[in-house]
Every structure is written in C-alpha cells, then in structure tokens.
Design goal:
CATH superfamily: NAD(P)-binding Rossmann-like Domain
Family: Belongs to the short-chain dehydrogenases/reductases (SDR) family.
Organism: Cladophialophora psammophila CBS 110553
Order of helices and strands: EHEHEHEHEHEHE
CATH architecture: 3-Layer(aba) Sandwich
Largest sheet: 7 strands, parallel
InterPro entries: Fungal_SecMetab_SDRs, NAD(P)-bd_dom_sf, SDR_fam
Helix content: 25-40%
Pfam family, one: adh_short
Structural class: alpha/beta
Shape: globular
Protein name: Short chain oxidoreductase
Number of domains: 1
Amino acid sequence: MSSYFITGAGRGLGLELVNQLSRMPSNQVSIVIAASRSQPTAALQEVVDRSHGRVIPITVTITDRSSIDMAVREVSSRLEGKGLDVLINNAGVMPGAFKGIAKMDNLRYAFEVNVEAVHETTAALLPLLKKGAGKQVVNISTTVGSISQAEGFAQAPFPAYKVSKAALNMLTVQYALEYGKEGFTFYVISPGWLKTDMGSQNADLGVDVGAGAVLDIVLNSRPEYNGTFRNILVPGWENNEGPNRYDGKEVPW
C-alpha cells in the first residue's frame, strides 16, 4: 500500500490524479493527501466523499513555508507514524507575456510557484519521505521547458513558464544527484497538453488520458528513472507530426 501527497489537487490534472488513485484497490493505494490552496472545490469534495476516508483534503499555501510546515504536521498525524511514499509536485502557474519577452513582468512569480515552492514543499516533506518505502518524488513539468525543443514552441507566449520549468528540471536533477544514493527516485514528467483551465479546450488530450498516462509511469517507476525527464505514452501519438509527441521516451533537456 502506498501513500501519496499531491499539490494542486483542487482542479485539473491534480484533481484527476487524486480521482484515479482513489479508485485503485486499497491494497495498492492506502491514502491520498489532496493539497490545495483553498477549501476543497465541489469536484474534489465529491471525490473525498466517496473515498471512504482514503482521500484527505488539506489546505496549504505552497509559497508560504509556515503553511507548508503546518500541512506537514497534519500529514504526519494522518499517517500515524508511517512514512510518505510518493510526492507529486503538480501545482504550477503559466503566466503569459503577450507583448513579447522584453515586456515580461511575471518571471519572479513563475519562479516562486513553479520552482521555489516545489523546493520548499519537497524539503519539508523529506523526513516523511525518508520513512516511506516508495521514496518517489515526481515533479510535473512540460516539454515546453525543454531547451533542446525550444524552437518548436517559440510561438507560445509564455516565456516565464518555459524558463521556470527549465529551472524546475534542473532542481529535480540536483535532488536526484544528492538523494539517489539514499534510495530516492526524483524525476520529471511531462503530462502532455491537456484540456484543463490552464491548457484550454484546444489541447490535445483529455485530462483523464493525461492523468492515466502519468500514473502509468509513477506506478511502474524504476530506480533508473532517477534524474530523468519522462514523457507520457499515449497510443496513436507516438509519431505525431509537430512538437507534441507522447511516445513514452525520455525528453531531451
């Protein structure tokens, strides 16, 4: 049985990850901590209500270390002395710069949420993760943050998002290098372009498809994933023309 902590669980990909985990057998998933910045949305509360106590919503502001520390104390109490197995840092922001990069005025905000908050959340939960059997930390990133593939996404007017996700990728590698020797697996997953509030309804994939593909990776994680950038696998999209391919392979940094 594995325990999970997922940020950004009130909507979008985070909500669907919680939803799908809650439907798995209890001998596979014991508890899911669904973290969001406000009281549970109606959709999240519905998942909580039918989970028979396996999904626990908590309120945490991931840009406030004192709020994170308070959440960690609550999680520790909920786990009743057991460790945390899997952390999925999913919460993020995608601010635009529609007048060009020189007019970008939201880089600090993007770094605060997409990089610094991930670091603070991970660092605060490390003691519980060290006690867990899974020792798995998954950071949700994007191929848009791949420097090697930057030209293919040049028209997307979200430079702060791209830059901060590239930094998140390097943060993940730094954690992987330091904690891999302790049995941890730190890695990045690109969940694809999903039909969420962030991704819009013009996106490639339904959020259920993206979440299922992410969990396929998480549930089948191997030690060699440590320090890598994983792409989801979606049948039929392996050889798609254009920048978005979902082939299950490693993404170039």
